[in-house]
Batch of 4 targets.
Target 1
Amino acid sequence: MDSTSVVITGAAAGIGRATAQRFLAAGYRVGAFDIDEKGLASLARAAGPAERGRLHTATLDVTDADAWRTGLAEFTETTGGTLGVLVNNAGLLSAGRLEEIPLAKQHAMVQVNVTGTINGCYAAHTYLAATPGARVINLCSASAIYGQPELAVYGATKFAVRGLSEALDLEWRADGIRVTALWPPFVDTGMLEGVTTGSTRSLGVRLGPDDVAGKVVAVAGDRGLPGRLPAVLPRSVHRPVGTQARALFTAASVAPSWVLRQVNARISGV
């Protein structure tokens, strides 16, 4: 039974790739899933000889529930049917005014960011429940603190991830599975290429993929394995990443909604 196993979606590039490399360096058995076959091949080539033996890559469209079942079944053949950590990282972002973004792109964000996360949690539950100290880490966003102009649908998908994470952390407590939502602000990845909004101009882009990856691995390490006192209590569902996100999240927890509205209007330049 292997509690140091992890499955990461969107692992071919950006945050997912950095996270896979961090987990490999920490000695985990890593299942790297992505729709980008070339990116996964590049990840495998970059791994050291010892790491390649612990790396399993597979193409996966996170919106395909059947593909999730097949992918997890193949990966867990090497772990005795267990899974220590699931990282739902795959995501899409389209920015701009709602009426200016093609509806197909908006639907794609919902399918990948929300349906993909639900599919992953659903398919992985059996394996997580069979593993002491299992954890799900869902990539949320500071955009889920308050609805952001020019990021309306993207933010809405992250509000959904926030609600799902809160509910499952309670629902799956009896199964010994803890669920965490990670809250980075804007991160310097390909997903932000060509994206310019009032928020990006005000806040800037101050985090790189490795900053978020480091937080993912740190959270995974606080899984309350036998003989360890978890550093993160079960009720600590939300984990902001970076100084900006911590400040925004703390303010949002105490400020009335009208103050948040004014702050977001100023940040967004509307």
Note: Residues 5-268 form a domain with the Rossmann fold fold (CATH 3.40.50.720).
Target 2
Amino acid sequence: MIPKDILKQIRRIQITTSRMVTDVFAGQYHSVFKGKGMEFYEVRQYQPGDEIRSIDWNVTARTGQPFVKKFIEERELTVMLLLDMSASSYFGTAQQLKMQLAAQLCSVLAFSAIKNNDKVGFIAFTDRIEKFIPPRKGLRHVLRVIREALYFKPQGTGTDIAGALDYLNRLTTRRTVTFIISDFFAPDFKKKLTVANKRHDIVAVTVTDPCELELPDAGLVKLFDPEKGRDFILDTSDRNLRLEYARRSQARIKQRNSLFASARVDTIDVRTDIPYSRSLLKFFRSRERRRR
């Protein structure tokens, strides 16, 4: 039985994100993520302005009148959501936990997909594959994806992005649009990411909390590393410690961005203290400009 508070969250996310998709994202999603190609639709009589290359010479010869072929976009896509549910995703010092933000992102992307009649699949992973929902269409299916993103209790604590990408490639040989939603605190996965991006259209969605970038001056603070399962104490009043922490955080982000660039993977950077709609709009607009 799903707790009432989870059901309320699902309902709230459904209302908020479906309205946002209708008002903002659906059209941009459609223009950014194209179908697999063009398929034949019909022939019709030639009209001034039609391209000569589109003339159907067989029909033209048979009828004695010029006819042209019409094609439409083969639209249907499969969108895969790969959600990192490792222990570090249950961290948050701003408006919400990283996992709560990730669930909302899953919702927006899933609603955008079904609004365009695309299929949506879901893979939850930690240091293992935790949950797989095969790609399907429809509102009930998307609500199931949101429910699992919010309510599923993983067994693992670590992060194996390479393993999740391997699983994706074994799962399907057809091209998908795949969003990996994670903080990307994981061992080297560059090779697997590069290989997967040649088969699929991979988008890395980075989820960050402000305290992962800079430490506040809060004196002695007891922290717990959920992925390693140990406590440690930091003296956050130490200015040098805070500076070193910020330096290492920036170095880690720089290294991560360099990895994405070398693998030619697009990114969407979201934070728990900033509305994610800004980051999604920035991504859609940037990608749309590149495709013109």
Note: The two ends are 49 Å apart (CA to CA).
Target 3
Amino acid sequence: MPVFGAIDFDEHEQISFFHDRKTGLKAIIAIHNTRRGPALGGCRMWPYKDEQDALTDVLRLSKGMTYKAALANLPYGGGKMVIIGDPHHDKAPALFRAVGRCVNQFHGQFITGEDMGTSPKDMAYVRETTTHVLGLPGGVGDPSPYTAVGVYESIRAAVAYRLKKESLEGLKIAVQGLGHVGYHLCKLLHKAGVELVVTDIDDTLVQKAVKAFAATAVAPDDIYKADVDVFSPCALGAIINDHTIPQFKCKMIVGSANNQLENHEHGEILARMKILYGPDYVVNAGGLIDLSYDGPNYNRDVVLKHAQGIYDTLLDIFHRAEKLKLSTSEAADHLAEERFKM
């Protein structure tokens, strides 16, 4: 299993592999860059098909956190932790206490929180063995609503730039994935008068959205060819690829999923197709912004204002891309690198 030679290795500062025999924990922590401050990144639990798949994910996610923190103007670098396991069957308090012991070995240079497959309750067990964890019950808790706010503001920015419209009313938007972020986003979009098309691998969530938001349900494989103004991917990454791109009928792609582009070339292809792409690590920064304020002086109004600022950041990136004749993903990368490579 190559590490330094892995395609997603990008001058990462540290990659650590952990195994705890008693709990069965198998985990990887990757620290990408700490020039702006300690690496901050969630703890994801997922039934990866193999260790290479987990390594690829943690390398890509940790790098994305560096760029995300930089463009959100946060004093943090990027890191991530992934646990190889099924969150529906393999969770146990002892396992998350072992997670805390792993995090503690970085002496504050890595700070974690909840992510896909984990929850604030899980982080409470992590807190029993380390202080370097955010998003605990009774504190910030689940940051998903603020991630959804950031996606909503990003959609507003894309619509303002591409369609020259301030209102979303009457637009048709497809949301892929109806977990915490996707469902909160649907709630905001429905309130704004959007016509929703939705999908998820869990049909219970789909029917819930259909009932609550008068949404139109489509099969998971049909969401890419939905005839909509905006496609909002809020599930897994790498969904913009050679197979899906020819199916797109949307004008804009703006969603919360991490690493939506299978590779950088796909961002350039979208630009040539005149599909406006909101770089994912800009769009989905609301949850990270929320976690960064965790503490005794936490103020929801301050967090909300910061998350709403993603609107202006994304507009800046769209204009930079147009001026420099770059794809929006390239323009975002350049702006972030200006901030963390100083």
Note: The domain at 144-340 is CATH 3.40.50.720 (Rossmann fold).
Target 4
Amino acid sequence: MTPEFVVNIGRQAIETTLFVAGPMLLAALGIGLVISIFQAATQINEQTMTFIPKIVGVFVTLLVFAPWMLQKLSSFLHMIFNTLPTIGQ
């Protein structure tokens, strides 16, 4: 097992994590931005106002993107399991 091989596996793991978490993070960011603009326009400075919309938005995003996320994760795991026999050589 070469250092390049380990770095490549680590890079692919980080890429997969970012791809899978990206849609949920972007939904939370967008909802937070909209609520921040609403709070600035109405001068309502309630810190807990953002929690429920963000939770609902992330949950809906998870439901919508779940098949794609599972496909990405399963393809990464298949790649890992397929390379396991070659690691000891």
Note: The radius of gyration is 19 Å.
